Amino acid sequence: MPDRLAAEVTELVGDQADHWDRSGLIPHELLREMSGRGLLCAQVPEEYGGLGLDNARGGEFTAHVGSLCSSLRSVMTSQGMAAWAIQRLGDAEQRTGLLDGLVQGRLAAVGFSEADAGSDISSMRTTVRRDGDHVVVNGAKTWITAALYADDLVIFGRYEDGGAVVVIPADTPGVTIERVPDPLGCRAAGHSHIRLDDVRVPAQRVLGGAGMPLPLLITLVLAYGRMSVAWGCVGILRACLAAAGAHARSRRQFGKPLGEHQLVGRHLAQLLVSEQVATRACEHASALWDANASDAVTATVLAKHVSATQAAQGAASAVQVLASAGADNSCLVARAYRDAKLMEIIEGSNELCQVMLAEHVLSRS
Questions:
Q1: Beta-bridge partners for 129
Q2: Contact 127, 95 (CB under 8 A)
Q3: Is the CA virtual torsion 234, 239, 242, 247 positive or negative?
Q4: Cα separation of 251 and 92, whole Å?
Q5: How far is 37 from 190, CA to CA, in rounded Å?
Q6: CA separation for the pair 279, 95 (Å, rounded)
Q7: What is the pLDDT of residues 123-144, one digit of tens each?
Q8: Which of 17, 68, 130, 235 has the most crowded CB, counting CB atoms within 10 A?
C-alpha cells in the first residue's frame, strides 16, 4: 500500500471516528472529496481515472481505513462493490461513463438483500421489467450500506428468466430511502432501507449482464465485498491490538504493569494470533485474486469467515483488557466490539460461510 494513500486518509479522518459513530453520519463533503481522489474505490483501473491498485495493495489500504473507522471502510466497500459490478458486468460505454463518476465525486450503494431474501437469493422479489427504451423496477431492499449517501443505487433484481443489475440515480421518482435508525455497529455507514415503486430509467442503465443467472450475478459482486470486509476486519484487529497493548503497558496493578499478569498476557497473545491469522488468510486470498486463480472464490469466503470471527473474538479480548475503560462507548475498542459483530453477519454470515466451505469440501474428488 502506498504510504501516501494511508497518510491522506489518516489526515482526513483525524480524530473524528468517535464523533461520526455517535452522530451516525460521516460528512457528505468528506466522502465526496475521497471519491474525487479515488480513495473510495482504489482498485478502479487507471484507464478509468482510478488508482489501479491490485487486490493485495487495495486490501492493505482497506485494512488501514478499517483500523481508523469501520463506518468509513464500509462506505468504501460499498463504493468498491459498485465499481466492481460496473467493471465486470458493464459494456464499454457503461464502464467509461459510470466508473469515471465514482472516482470524480459520486457515491454509490449496492442493493442485494431484502426482508425475506438475505442469503436466500431464490426468494428475491425485486423485479426489472423492460418497457420500450426503459426498464421499470419494483421492490424493496433492506439494510443497504451507504444508501443514505448514494447518488447511484446499483440494484439487483429478477429480469425475465434470469437477473439484471440496474444503476438507478437515487433522486429518480419512485425511489424512497429510509435510514436504519439505530444500527448496532458501523453506525455512520449510512445503512438504509430502499423502496422502489415503478422506478423508470433508460434501458442503458441495465448493466451488460442482464439475463444472466441471478445467483451468478450476485456471487460475482459479493466476492469483492467479502474480500473488502475481510481486510477491514484485519484493520479492526490491528487497532485493538495497539490499544490493548498500550493499555497493558501503561496500567499498573499490584505493583507491576497489567500486561505482566499472565491471564492478561494471554489476551494479548491471542489478539496477536488473531491479527496474524486474519492477515495471512487475506494475503492468501488476495494473491489468488491477483493471479486470477480458480480457487480465489473459496479463498475469499475463507478469508471473510476467518477474519470476521477473529475480529469479533479479538475485539472482545481488547475490551476485557481495558476493562471499565473499554466499556465506555467512546473508546475505540468498544466501537470495534460493536463493529466486529456486524462483520460476522454482513456479506455472508458466519453460518453461510461455513455452509459454503463445507460444500467445497464435499465437492472435492
A1: 136
A2: no
A3: negative
A4: 58
A5: 21
A6: 32
A7: 899 999 999 999 999 999 999 9
A8: 235
Supply the angle between the helices 262-290 and 296-322 in degrees, to the nearest 10.
Answer: 160
For 256-261, what is the mean pLDDT? 79
Q: Taking the CA atoms of 113, 118, 120 and 126 in sequence, report the sign of the dihedral they define.
A: negative
Q: What is the 3-state secondary structure (H, E, C) of 24-84?
A: CCCCHHHHHHHHHCCCCCCCCCHHHCCCCCCHHHHHHHHHHHHHHCHHHHHHHHHHHHHHH
**DSSP of 163-205:** EEEEEEETTSTTEEEEE-SS-SS-TTS--EEEEEEEEEEEGGG
pLDDT digits (tens, 9 = 90+) for 107-124: 999 999 999 877 777 789
Contact between 342 and 189 (Cβ < 8 Å): no
CB 85 within 8 A of CB 102: no
Say how many C-beta atoms besides its own lie within 10 A of residue 104's C-beta. Answer: 13
Q: How far apart are CA 84 and CA 245, in angstroms?
A: 37
Q: Is the pLDDT of residue 1 over 60?
A: no
Cell numbers found for residue 79: 463504493
Q: How far apart are CA 284 and CA 307, in angstroms?
A: 12
Q: How many CA atoms lie within 13 A of 69 on its CB side?
A: 25
| Summary count for the chain: helices (H), strands (E) | 11, 9
Flag whether pLDDT at 2 surpasses 70: no
At 154, give phi and psi (nearest 5°).
-95, 100
